[in-house]
Amino acid sequence: MRRVLVTHADEPIGRRIVKVLFHDRDVAHVLGVGEGPAPRGFDRFLADPDSRFAYLRSPVSRHRSVSDLFGSSRVRDAGIDAVVHVPSHQPAAASQRRLLAGLPPRTAEARLVLQQCVESDTLRTLVALGSAYVYRLQAGNSNRLVESSELALSPDVVPEVRSWVDCDMTFRAEVGSGRLRVVLLRLPTVVASGGYVYLNPLLSGRGGARPRPMGFDPVCALVADKDVARAVRAALFAERSGVYNVAGVESVPLSVLGSWTRRPCVPVPAPMLGIAAGLLRLAGGQVQLDRISGAHLRYGFTLDTARAERELGFRPAYRIGVATAGDGERRLETAPI
């Protein structure tokens, strides 16, 4: 039986993971941690005083709050032995403040959560969600990436991707190094029903048009949010450490994905994007700069997930397709295979 703490449980992917674990009879207790109030979807979980679920408000991007959280009586009394670290995936504009030694929040959170897990006497497993955009992309759409593929370590990598690379290297450094079992799941674009998109450097956040370099239309690997939760569950119980690609069976061009999610990607001459990026850099517009530059806007990829299937027993169970919503618009939906 597992007793699991889930970070950023108030955000969409975190909520999905909590729900899957709550309904799993091999999970004795789930403690959701978020910066905001408990989502309304958790009301029925919390209504029962003997519920296997509890919710706690606490930021995980500041040293004092993370230390207090992991040392709290709530965590101790719940007998938490595993942590699922879900990185924040709200619109990037909300998380541009610099914290721990000037690091972006995503990187600071990764280091702080890992430190607490390594130093704990009771935690045995850490499952962290990472990004498949950490890989170095070659020209074209033929990038078929395995876990050993080269990472994007070039100094000109845009900050949004660089923060994912920093987190990836932080977690990978602990794989197999001690008592703590560390599993890193590298995810492509995550799609939820209704056409919501997460963890895509260009399309995440609110709707609206996005510029992309004219002449490029990169292929985007996809995974349903429900399959992400299933992969987390598999990682918790597989008794394996390591890095694993996790993806669904579908891949679509960026232009198609944008149109299906009400985020049309408008082709713009590359020199104009370069000028705009320079102006935004001078103005401090880091978020917008990340969204209009980088290899991920030019070159596509798919993921080899054979290792996750072989060692974790994970195979996608949800397909991603287009359906007509109640308002007559066609958008991405997820459904069981």
Name some characteristics of this structure:
seven-stranded parallel sheet, 25% strand, globular
The termini sit apart by: 28 Å
Report the biggest beta sheet as strand number plus sense, adding barrel if it closes: 7 strands, parallel
Characterize the overall form.
globular
Query: Helices and strands, in N-to-C order?
Result: EHEHEHHEHEEHEEEEEHEEHEHHEHEE
Discrete helix count? 11
Tally of strands? 17
User: Segments where pLDDT lies below 50 for 5+ residues?
Assistant: 92-96
Mean pLDDT: 89
- Level of helix content? 25-40%
Strand order in the sheet with the most strands: 3-2-1-4-5-7-12
Radius of gyration, Cα only, in angstroms? 19 Å
Strand content: 15-25%
Structural class: alpha/beta
Your description of this structure?
It contains 11 helices and 17 strands. It is 31% helix and 25% strand. The strands form 5 sheets. A 7-stranded parallel beta sheet has the order 3-2-1-4-5-7-12, sandwiched between helices. A 4-stranded mixed beta sheet has the order 9-8-11-13. It is globular, with a radius of gyration of 19 Å. Strand 1, helix 1 (12-22) and strand 2 form a beta-alpha-beta unit. It starts with a strand and ends with a strand. It is an alpha/beta fold and 337 residues long.
Describe the protein's topology.
Blueprint: E1 2-6, H1 12-22, E2 27-34, H2 43-47, E3 53-57, H3 63-70, H4 73-78, E4 82-85, H5 105-119, E5 125-131, E6 143-145, H6 159-172, E7 181-187, E8 189-192, E9 196-198, E10 210-213, E11 219-224, H7 225-237, E12 242-245, E13 251-253, H8 254-260, E14 265-268, H9 270-283, H10 286-291, E15 301-303, H11 306-312, E16 318-324, E17 330-336
Parallel strand pairs: 1-2, 1-4, 2-3, 4-5, 5-7, 6-15, 7-12, 8-11, 10-14
Antiparallel strand pairs: 8-9, 11-13, 16-17
